[in-house]
Design goal:
Length: 248
């Protein structure tokens, strides 16, 4: 396959960026999208040019570090992470636009790499359990109803890639935050901090400068792990419950 790539190039956070065009030949349909970018970078290095900076780690669809906007879609045309997107999803001769996440809370560091530490600070605000639990308890010592366990596992699948933010027309982080709130709040271990967790995490989310949620639903469509849109509704209910309890 021969492809034309239009890639966002930006020297650093303070520099202006622009789309640069590259031709990539000899692309196998079985290559992952990141392997295709590796091929591009090998050619650039051989020509003495600066390779395209992009983030990656596990390349197994687990960490979410590989996040890119491809032809206007977060992670590309398939509902998966960028590293698990294969070039058979494209056709010979295609022109492909490759951009970083676009959100004020995710500033560009270089080229396709963005700073997603805003997510880390939301987690630090309350996405954990600090209640003393002692030694590891017997597996069945704290019964958890099956629906609650399923709900918690579904939300725990969030890998924090940021596709929800990139896809949202408002740049909101509600789906990410709701996943982190809901998967702890529904479990007995998360109950002692149930109110402070949702209040603190939502407050930190707002402080980071993410946009407001209007339930456009693009976040759930783009999420590679299938976090449902009703997760946001669940967090809103938790937030209302917590504010009423605090007022009392």
């Amino acid at each position: 396959m021969k492809l034309t790539l239009r890639v966002w190039r930006q020297k650093n956070a303070d520099a202006d960026g622009t789309m640069s065009t590259y031709e990539v030949d000899g692309v196998s349909p079985d290559m992952s999208f990141l392997e295709m970018l590796d091929t591009l970078n090998e050619d650039l290095i051989l020509r003495g040019e600066d390779p395209v900076a992009f983030d990656h780690d596990c390349r197994e669809g687990i960490c979410g570090a590989c996040s890119l906007v491809i032809n206007g879609d977060a992670h590309g045309p398939e509902r998966t992470t960028t590293c698990q997107l294969h070039m058979r999803s494209f056709r010979d001769g295609d022109t492909i636009d490759v951009e970083p996440w676009r959100a004020s809370a995710f500033p560009v560091i270089k080229d396709l790499v963005v700073d997603r530490s805003a997510f880390d600070r939301i987690i630090q605000a309350g996405g954990y359990v600090t209640a003393p639990t002692g030694s590891a308890p017997e597996a069945h010592a704290t019964p958890v109803p099956k629906p609650d366990a399923d709900f918690a596992f579904e939300h725990a699948e969030c890998i924090g890639c940021g596709a929800c933010v990139a896809a949202c027309p408002n740049g909101a982080a509600m789906l990410f935050t709701s996943a982190k709130v809901n998967h702890l709040n529904v479990l007995p271990q998360g109950a002692p901090e149930r109110e402070t967790r949702v209040l603190d995490m939502v407050a930190q989310m707002d402080e980071e400068g993410f946009g407001g949620c209007t339930l456009a639903g693009e976040c759930a469509v783009a999420c590679p792990k299938g976090i449902p849109l009703v997760s946001i509704t669940g967090m809103n209910k938790e937030w209302l419950r917590a504010t009423r309890k605090v007022k009392r």
